[in-house]
UniProtKB/TrEMBL annotation, chain A:
Source species taxonomy: Bacteria, Pseudomonadati, Pseudomonadota, Alphaproteobacteria, Rhodobacterales
Domain Sulphur oxidation protein SoxZ: 10-103
Pfam families given in the database record: SoxZ
Protein name: Sulfur oxidation protein SoxZ
InterPro entries: Ig-like_fold, Ig_E-set, SoxZ, SoxZ_dom
NCBIfam families in the cross-refs: SoxZ_true
Automatic annotation (TrEMBL), chain B:
Location of the Ig-like SoxY domain: 37-138
Domain of life: Bacteria
Phylogenetic classification of the source organism: Bacteria, Pseudomonadati, Pseudomonadota, Alphaproteobacteria, Rhodobacterales
Listed name of the protein: Sulfur oxidation protein SoxY
Species name: Planktotalea frisia
InterPro entries: SoxY, SoxY_sf, Sulphur_oxidation_SoxY, TAT_signal
Keyword Signal: yes
Length: 109, 140
C-alpha cells in the first residue's frame, strides 16, 4: 500500500428529492507516472490509482479509468441526482491492489 | 535508355519521392491510434461536447480540465503530445444528470487535449482544445 493515502470527499449533508448536487473528491496519492527517472538514471516504476468509482445506494454515478497523465492527488468534480436518502460510496483502486473506500451519507428532507 | 548523368538524377529523385511517401504512416500520431482504438475508426461529429481548459498553463503538472457532454455515456480524454496519449475515460451511470466532470491532468508540453464522447445512440463526438504549457509535467 502506498504511503499516506487519504481520501477526502465533499458531499452536502442534505438535499431535496431529485436535486442535483455537486460532489468533489480528492485522494492524496503520488501517482508515479513511470516516466520519471531517479538520480541514478533508473526509471521509477509506475504506481498510480487506475480506477475511481462513485455509487449511490448501489447505483453507479461515475466510473473513471485513470492513466498516468492524471496529476498527483487525483481530483474529480462531478454531479449526481439524489432520489432518496442514502449513502454515497467512493472507491479508488491502486495499481498495487489496494482499495481505498469512503462513504458519505445524505439526507433527503 | 542510355544511363546519362541527366537520367541518373531523374531516377534518383524519383526514388527519393517514393521513399518519403513510404515513410509517411510513421508520422501518424499515437493519439490518433488511441482514439481509433475506442471509436473503431467511426466518423466523429462535433457540437454536443465542450472542453473547458486554460489557454496557457504555467505548470504542466496540474492542468485543470473540465468537460460537458450531455447525452454521452462515455467520455475519453487524450493528450496528443504526451508520451502516453491516454489521459482518462469517464463512464456515466443513470444518476449522473449532466455528464460533466472536472479533473487535473499532466501535460508534457504545449499540445492539444482531445475529448471523444460516445453518445447514447452509439455515435461519436469529438472536440479539442489547444493548451500552451510553460513548464512540462512529465519529469525527466
Amino acid at each position: 500500500m502506498a504511503k499516506g493515502v487519504k481520501p477526502r470527499v465533499k458531499v452536502p449533508k442534505t438535499a431535496s428529492a431529485g436535486e442535483t448536487i455537486t460532489i468533489k473528491t480528492l485522494i492524496s496519492h503520488k501517482m508515479e507516472s513511470g516516466q520519471r527517472k531517479d538520480s541514478d538514471g533508473n526509471a521509477i516504476p509506475r504506481s498510480i490509482i487506475n480506477r475511481f468509482t462513485a455509487d449511490f445506494n448501489g447505483e453507479n454515478v461515475i466510473d473513471v479509468t485513470l492513466e498516468p497523465a492524471i496529476s498527483t492527488n487525483p481530483y474529480f468534480q462531478f454531479d449526481s441526482v439524489v432520489p432518496e436518502s442514502g449513502d454515497f460510496k467512493f472507491t479508488w483502486y491502486d495499481d498495487d491492489g489496494s482499495v481505498y473506500e469512503e462513504t458519505k451519507s445524505i439526507k433527503v428532507g | 535508355m542510355k544511363l546519362t548523368r541527366r537520367n541518373m538524377i531523374a531516377i534518383s529523385s524519383g526514388a527519393a519521392v517514393v521513399a518519403s511517401f513510404g515513410a509517411m504512416p510513421a508520422f501518424a500520431s499515437l493519439a490518433d491510434d488511441a482514439i481509433a482504438e475506442i471509436t473503431g475508426g467511426a466518423e466523429m461529429g462535433e457540437g454536443a461536447l465542450t472542453i473547458t481548459a486554460p489557454e496557457i498553463a504555467e505548470n504542466g503538472n496540474t492542468v485543470p480540465i473540465s468537460f460537458d457532454a450531455p447525452g454521452a455515456v462515455m467520455v475519453a480524454l487524450f493528450a496528443d503530445g504526451n508520451p502516453t496519449p491516454k489521459v482518462a475515460s469517464f463512464k456515466f451511470g443513470k444518476l449522473s444528470p449532466s455528464h460533466s466532470a472536472s479533473t487535473r491532468i499532466r501535460l508534457a508540453g504545449t499540445q492539444n487535449v482531445v475529448a471523444v464522447a460516445q453518445m447514447e445512440d452509439g455515435s461519436f463526438q469529438k472536440t479539442q482544445a489547444n493548451i500552451k504549457v510553460t513548464i512540462g509535467g512529465c519529469g525527466g
